[in-house]
Amino acid sequence: MMVRDAYDGMKDRDSKVVEFKHPKELEAMLDLGLNKETSDDSLLKICQDIIKYSVKTGHPRFFNQLYGGLDDYSLGGSWLTEVLNTSVYTFEVSPVFTVMEKTLLQKMLDLIGFTDGDAIFTPGGSLANMYALNVARYKRFPDVKKTGVYGLPKLCVLTSEKGHYSMKKGMAFLGIGLDNLVNVKADDKGKMDVQDLENKILQVQSEGKMPYLVNATAGTTVFGVYDPLDKIADICQKYGLWMHVDGAWGGSALLSKTYRGLLKGIDRADSMTWNPHKMMGAPLQSAAFLTRHKKLLPECHSANAAYLFQQDKFYDVSYDTGDKSIQCGRKNDCLKLWMMWKAKGDVGFEKDIDNLFECSRYLAKSVKNKEGFELVVEPECTNVCFWYIPVSMRNQPRDADWWQRLGKVAPKIKEKMTKDGTMLIGYQPDGERVNFFRMIISNLEIVKADMDFVISEIDRLGKDL
Amino acid sequence: MMVRDAYDGMKDRDSKVVEFKHPKELEAMLDLGLNKETSDDSLLKICQDIIKYSVKTGHPRFFNQLYGGLDDYSLGGSWLTEVLNTSVYTFEVSPVFTVMEKTLLQKMLDLIGFTDGDAIFTPGGSLANMYALNVARYKRFPDVKKTGVYGLPKLCVLTSEKGHYSMKKGMAFLGIGLDNLVNVKADDKGKMDVQDLENKILQVQSEGKMPYLVNATAGTTVFGVYDPLDKIADICQKYGLWMHVDGAWGGSALLSKTYRGLLKGIDRADSMTWNPHKMMGAPLQSAAFLTRHKKLLPECHSANAAYLFQQDKFYDVSYDTGDKSIQCGRKNDCLKLWMMWKAKGDVGFEKDIDNLFECSRYLAKSVKNKEGFELVVEPECTNVCFWYIPVSMRNQPRDADWWQRLGKVAPKIKEKMTKDGTMLIGYQPDGERVNFFRMIISNLEIVKADMDFVISEIDRLGKDL
To answer: Which residues are annotated as modified residue N6-(pyridoxal phosphate)lysine in the UniProt record (chains A, B) (predicted)?
Structure first.
């Protein structure tokens, strides 16, 4: 019943997205301390508070992150996942989900064009990107697994300056180092500048470094831009570099005949990150690393633990997936996604994805037509980035001081919307662009009226600033 | 209702733990293909099959892995987790779970003795162990984050030959290399030989390598042995090495006044891995990396992404935890554990853990007293390792051929128990010891009668071999 309340609170547009309290207030209000045993009644009361003060990420007005929504099939799948509590490392203890993962990942591989490839679920896109850094390094220098990077030339990786920060985390974690991550310029739309990519490759080579991977992005984090994959594939081919595509966010466009062209050239990549917990609406966590190279994952990641991957089992142990992963125990991340897909079918999913893209185009148009709103870039994915200009700042010369003042508007509106709890939208600066809103359209239940609401609500909150 | 069936099937001792089918049979039987949309009725039927053919990890006769059981509070917590679908990176979108994690992790830190430390949930113990490899490396050589390991002396890590294989995966993934993982001998009980540890440190130093971390284990994977932490701490102190304790499995003994002495010296370690999804019975995934060093996690892992960790937010952003992690989106792994702990209290949890240890001692005694059973090592954690000797092999000279034949007994019994579905117990060889059963007592609902069942069932399945 309690869970039912939480569920209903998600779906009702008139309920609050957030009931904000400052950290210290919340700590004082919630009875979280662990010590004595607690009666069911008291626990239920605390749970009501937990629900009340949690942000409703499934609410149709939660536009804050690259995920959102709450699909009934998917929720059923994730509840069953919790009951069955399966660790997906061997067929022995995970028979159904081993073959289900295989089916699901093959479906994704086929959509990319990696028909004879291999794939695995990872706990999030950052780790999937790190898988790319690791398997590409291993492909080029198989000895690295044994010797480490000590004997290797100074590796480097090229990524767009608009790419995701997980590349930084990965370079540090994998022992290659942040200094060896080379930022490629983006053009004014936010797309990787392919000429600069080639220049940078030549430049680092002339410095004695060895580029080995290019990280292209399909749906950048802020602008939602798709890098020109076909042209990047040409460069990667020319210089013999591994081409990874971080499609954690924008990869789901592959489900749509109308929008999959945004990823033209993806079938020429070596690997891809794709998070169904983002645009496809599966609950966290559902993220996959997919590669065209069939035997690389187990070769690169295996440790052949005798206690787990016994070779004298009575079934076909080639089904055991554990040694493809850098994890040991691995949560079943496939059932919830499979449930949605099985229920909707390809056509249903396509409609959902198309709707998100159409809403973003509709919103971008509204932004362009509405006084006080200004689009930062034309949307490619379903991110809509815009400034809001309060009445007092309109029709003024846009000098440095004006921009500086504008940079304080988004945080102020964000504060007001959080306190009112009517919706949540993120903001950030980008390079020389001062703080602007990054509106994310990801909840599969969003309709155009929600876009109208965003416009009127921002106007309400901000016009008098 | 369907989920209810799955739940009931878990709890009933007379129901099957597994309804085994070979991989290809299962692929042929289950309608998993994704393409067309599916009616709710058909989907429900497929779900019944999914439940039927899934291994019941919550069943009281599932002894196969280092986890098991299904606690009602925890399940409630995980279902609510799925509804709220929170990503724990900022207080902004995860207010409740940010402060809940803080409370929960502080509780765990206090139990270890890292009162002023820091901690974070990770997707499994393997990644927590990798966190240790990374933060210890950063502590010693802060430049590694920028420069990679290129400019560093040849690092190496020492671990017991009985330690977990995630150390191997970590050494490869972090670019240090398997060759630089040094196995320390274990004594005949399976404990790290501290004299050999010191010898190996001196040896690798004389080879020009730089040991920087010792990985001790609290509850080894197969034997469940606790390394002598106090003595290892002495050595680490003497040579200035980071002491990590992999307590993924056996760390939960800290909850028991009777058994926490097994970890004597843990408060002198630099870091610890501890998986509540193992002995504490929280559903997958619940694993934590905990360290005594307060500011190390954010310093080592931060990337300061401007779009997510805005510094001009209106609340105290020191609460944002995302930059402590190598992930970006991070599943809420705390609520389910918090629910159990809040409901049971410390005393309730202690009783549960004590019961598991008592069952293991009871089983070990039965094994010693029962003809045809032979204990491999005396249990320390709740692993009970034993051989079963079929009637036809008893009272024979134990020559090489005899042992070789004995090595085939456990796989054969395992096949029979799997096909009968009455219980599941793992087996493996270890060094020169041929295949033996590794019985894991982890399900908090286990009682001594289940131990009696194990003895009689193995006897039934194996006596005529």
So the answer is: 278
